[in-house]
């Protein structure tokens, strides 16, 4: 395991040599020295190079993390965004017209893809988008004088962020059962009344299946006076093929860091724009980015929105992320987006077809961009769990897929290959999973004790949650490794 | 085959209840703790809170997932397991003993009849 940079520190070691320069010294007491590591330049370079080699990202290899759309992030997106890196949001709108025109165009293109009247680009992530969308739903009902609507219905297969966002937005979350891989219509009907503010749904759902009853579901919710919220985490299957607005969804968020190829994970910024139908436009977060055609036309931030839920991000969201998504949208065009979705679905079905000879696929019909396998039979027969298979995949050089989600499938792995993987890559990954299935039968101990090749194998997850050690120094100011 | 004591009654949501005189002790089953994995945190109600049968009374969080806890009976919370704040793993280690969750007083004894017995619960979890 790589040590902390502080452990390489030696008194007086420096990474720079500066020429003598006149000093300014009034004889005032010095501030206490900062506790920075004292290391040479090559110490720093080697330390961080070693760390980077221990990392695994989509630039290293296949990353089939279901529901996360870990597609390749084209480097040209970065080059494009860099052009605007020096801009300051405090500058007058008139000084940033070229940048604002790109953001405006991004909104218009998203409206085209998803079928909405307008999008706000402010939310910084998917869950932030959910929260924003739910506040819009709440504002809509209250504005109509309908304060009884305090419940949001969420299917039991939903992303975990959905119920969390409901609670945060002040709603009571009510779980709806699944039936044969979709919403249980009878259970939905049972819960629909005049206290329901809306239904949150992912389509394709978290089993990777298209919700075929969506029009009926939308009709039922609308008839009961509720609104439909579209969790766009799985939008990579439907670009240019099916618009959530046409399915009856009134509000939607999408994840630019999934579907539109901006970097994802690692704690970096994301973007979760929220689209709304015309009736909900007045409640969008302020400001919205508008265009005034007078005097040759100019773009400006419009704060004059009396019914707005208010601002949900400083300035106008994570602009660097938005610009990268703009580049992706313009390079793909409508034909490219449609093809990306088609290939994502094809790749997932190819993986599924090869794996289902050996692995149990609880919902075996054609999937969308991802699918779920269950290793419940391995657990019963050999004591090997989904977590064990995921750990063993690391020995084969792959990032494991999502495990134990959705909650309605026991011992599951959720695989999403995305459109950017070639057949050779998919085949190599299938070969690895098929080989692992063979190992489960012939040598389950090997799988149960995996990984055997990584620097960290099976961390103590409970201790990691309960006793996270995140400080370089303890309360005495001493580097904590020395005091253990 | 997981341990399912014959003298307890069970919910379909994997809680058990044991009647000890005027008190009903509630916990989760061995099967439930095994499915949840290592338990990190248990959120329990305050003493004195009234709970309804099948109403949620708390949350159990493991490294894998977060689940609601549902009360097998209506009643008033008379005690919560004080050890769980520091040692949530007791639910994993001894789900029917030291890993109990809450105790109820003034509980609705008639509601016991709609709960599952050990054989029915075993069938429910497919064992």
UniProtKB/TrEMBL annotation, chain A:
Entry EC no(s): 1.4.4.2
Superkingdom of source: Bacteria
Domain Glycine dehydrogenase C-terminal, chain residue ranges per copy: 340-442
Function statement: The glycine cleavage system catalyzes the degradation of glycine. The P protein binds the alpha-amino group of glycine through its pyridoxal phosphate cofactor; CO(2) is released and the remaining methylamine moiety is then transferred to the lipoamide cofactor of the H protein.
One Gene Ontology MF term: glycine dehydrogenase (decarboxylating) activity
Entries under NCBIfam families matching the protein: PRK04366.1
Keywords in alphabetical order: Oxidoreductase, Pyridoxal phosphate
GO biological process: glycine decarboxylation via glycine cleavage system
Catalytic function, reaction form: N(6)-[(R)-lipoyl]-L-lysyl-[glycine-cleavage complex H protein] + glycine + H(+) = N(6)-[(R)-S(8)-aminomethyldihydrolipoyl]-L-lysyl-[glycine-cleavage complex H protein] + CO2
GO cellular component: cytosol; glycine cleavage complex
The UniProt record lists the keyword Oxidoreductase: yes
Protein's name according to its UniProt entry: glycine dehydrogenase (aminomethyl-transferring)
InterPro entries: GDC-P_C (IPR049316), GDC_P (IPR020581), PyrdxlP-dep_Trfase (IPR015424), PyrdxlP-dep_Trfase_major (IPR015421), PyrdxlP-dep_Trfase_small (IPR015422)
Automatic annotation (TrEMBL), chain B:
Cofactors demanded by this protein: (R)-lipoate
Superkingdom in the source lineage: Bacteria
Cofactor note: Binds 1 lipoyl cofactor covalently.
Residues annotated with N6-lipoyllysine modification: 64
Gene Ontology CC annotations of this record: cytosol; glycine cleavage complex
Lipoyl-binding domain residues: 23-105
GO biological process: glycine decarboxylation via glycine cleavage system; protein lipoylation
The entry's keywords: Lipoyl
InterPro entries xref list: 2-oxoA_DH_lipoyl-BS, Biotin_lipoyl, GCV_H, GCV_H/Fam206, GCV_H_sub, Single_hybrid_motif
Any Pfam family: GCV_H
Family: Belongs to the GcvH family.
Assembly and binders: The glycine cleavage system is composed of four proteins: P, T, L and H.
PANTHER family: GLYCINE CLEAVAGE SYSTEM H PROTEIN (PTHR11715), GLYCINE CLEAVAGE SYSTEM H PROTEIN-RELATED (PTHR11715:SF3)
General function of this protein: The glycine cleavage system catalyzes the degradation of glycine. The H protein shuttles the methylamine group of glycine from the P protein to the T protein.
Alphabetized HAMAP family for the sequence: GcvH (MF_00272)
Protein name as annotated: Glycine cleavage system H protein
């Amino acid at each position: 395991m790589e040590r902390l940079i502080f452990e390489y520190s030696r008194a007086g070691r420096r990474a720079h040599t500066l020429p003598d320069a006149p000093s300014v010294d009034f004889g005032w007491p010095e501030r206490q020295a900062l506790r920075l590591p004292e290391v040479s330049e090559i110490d720093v370079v080697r330390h961080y190079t070693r760390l980077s080699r221990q990392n695994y990202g989509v630039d290293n290899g296949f990353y089939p993390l279901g529901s996360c759309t870990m597609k390749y992030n084209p480097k040209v997106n970065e080059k494009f965004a860099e052009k605007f890196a020096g801009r300051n949001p405090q500058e007058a709108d008139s000084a940033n017209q070229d940048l604002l025109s790109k953001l405006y165009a991004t909104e218009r293109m998203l409206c085209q893809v998803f079928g909405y009247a307008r999008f706000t680009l402010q939310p910084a992530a998917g869950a932030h988008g959910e929260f924003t969308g739910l506040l819009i739903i709440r504002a809509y009902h209250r504005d109509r004088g309908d304060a009884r609507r305090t419940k949001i219905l969420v299917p039991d297969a939903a992303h975990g962020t959905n119920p969390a966002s409901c609670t945060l937005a002040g709603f009571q979350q009510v779980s709806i059962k699944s039936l044969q891989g979709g919403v249980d219509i009878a259970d939905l009907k049972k819960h629909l009344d005049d206290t329901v503010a809306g239904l949150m749904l992912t389509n394709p759902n978290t089993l990777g299946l298209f919700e075929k009853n969506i029009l009926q579901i939308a009709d039922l919710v609308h008839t009961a006076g509720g609104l439909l919220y579209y969790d766009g985490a799985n939008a990579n299957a439907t670009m240019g093929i099916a618009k959530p607005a046409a399915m009856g969804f009134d509000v939607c968020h999408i994840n630019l860091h999934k579907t539109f190829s901006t970097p994802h994970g690692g704690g970096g910024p994301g973007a979760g724009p929220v689209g709304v139908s015309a009736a909900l436009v007045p409640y969008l977060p302020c400001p919205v980015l508008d265009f005034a055609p007078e005097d040759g036309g100019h773009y400006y931030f419009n704060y004059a929105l009396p019914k707005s839920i208010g601002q949900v991000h400083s300035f106008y969201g994570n602009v660097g992320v938005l610009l990268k998504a703009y580049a992706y949208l313009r390079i793909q065009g409508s034909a490219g987006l449609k093809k990306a979705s088609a290939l994502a679905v094809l790749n997932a079905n190819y993986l599924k077809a090869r794996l289902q000879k050996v692995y149990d696929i609880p919902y075996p019909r054609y999937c969308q961009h991802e699918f779920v396998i269950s290793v419940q039979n391995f657990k019963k027969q050999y004591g090997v769990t989904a977590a064990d298979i995921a750990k063993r995949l690391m020995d084969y050089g792959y990032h494991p897929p999502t495990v134990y989600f959705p909650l309605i499938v026991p011992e599951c792995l959720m695989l999403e290959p995305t459109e950017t993987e070639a057949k050779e890559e998919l085949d190599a990954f299938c070969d690895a999973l098929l080989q692992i299935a063979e190992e489960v039968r012939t040598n389950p101990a090997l799988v149960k004790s995996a990984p055997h090749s990584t620097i960290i194998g099976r961390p103590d997850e409970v201790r990691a949650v309960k006793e996270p050690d995140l400080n370089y120094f303890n309360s005495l100011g001493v580097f904590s490794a020395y005091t253990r | 085959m997981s341990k399912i004591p014959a003298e307890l009654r069970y919910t379909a949501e994997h809680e058990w209840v044991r009647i000890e005189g005027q008190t009903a002790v509630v916990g989760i089953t061995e099967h439930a703790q095994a499915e949840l994995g290592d338990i990190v945190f248990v959120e329990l109600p305050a003493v004195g809170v009234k709970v309804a049968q099948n109403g949620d009374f708390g949350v159990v969080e493991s490294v894998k997932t977060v689940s609601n806890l549902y009360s097998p009976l209506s009643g008033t919370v008379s005690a919560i397991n004080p050890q769980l704040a520091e040692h949530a793993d007791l639910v994993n280690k001894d789900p029917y003993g030291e890993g109990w969750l809450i105790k109820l007083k003034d509980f609705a004894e008639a509601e016991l009849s709609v709960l599952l017995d050990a054989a029915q619960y075993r069938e429910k979890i497919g064992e």
